[in-house]
Amino acid sequence: MTPSATGAAPLHGEKILVTGATGQVALPVALALAPDNEVWASARFTDAGARHRLEAAGIKCARVDLVRGDLAELPTGFTVVLNFAVVKSGRWDVDLDGNVGALGLLMEHCQDARAFLHCSSTGVYEPRAHHVFREDDPLGDNHRAYASELPFMETYSITKIAAEAMARYGARRWNLPTTIARLNVPYGDNGGWPAFHLEMILRGLPVAIHPDGPVRFNPIHEDDIVATIPGLLEAADVPATVVNWGGEPATIEDWCAYLGELVGVEASFITSNAALGSVPVDLERMHELTLPASVPWREGFRHMVHARHPEVLGPRS
Length: 317
Known about the structure:
single chain; 317 residues; alpha/beta; Rossmann fold; three-stranded mixed beta sheet; 11 helices; 14 strands; globular
């Protein structure tokens, strides 16, 4: 094992729990960690194919229903917990139980772990046009306007903020070293927001953008998510460590134009006050704690198109 520039060695020989393991972000994380660790994946596993893919990689699966607080199949003795589970039903009672109450139950169940990584979101920040958000900036309902047209996101920001409060409590209550990592725009071969934009461009549909553009974010490739996890775990502490989690800055306008160039279809846009505004983040603290993201967004987007639409761009060599 070779330590990173921050002194954090790659995970090896750990007993790792990855929650929400069939999801866009957690699935590639679980698969990447499986060769060198005992990885357990928890989810509801309503898709038998997703469970089979995990088990074929040597990952042990446990059915967990966070909304009901059912952790009966989950063993103990985890050394590391990576919590990527999220419930987005749009129902306040369901999403509070699934995202907040269940997090408390999970931290209690795994209180003997050496480190707990809770994946939060930069969607917890109070919107401020073109402001570059630091970890101590005010929190607020980033999805308020968006939810007016897409009600399933109505609960997202508020329950993410509440979950951070639970993670902070759990770290103190069980003396469980914890990192709360506010993820910006994750993407990769397994999908993500830019992948939705890709599908819209291929179908000739306009991408909605906020009128106060350019709309800036910090997309981070799934390879960089995996690479930065050891450092984020090493930074886990009591009280909990809070850190932004993102990559190279980019705008929706630029990345859609680039996706259009790759697939030979010009991207088009419509402006909407219900679209998410800019949420660029300051990554100084992240770079102090772990490796900086190394995948340039154009390279990552090209890889994503290769993986998801080889018929358009050809298979990746």
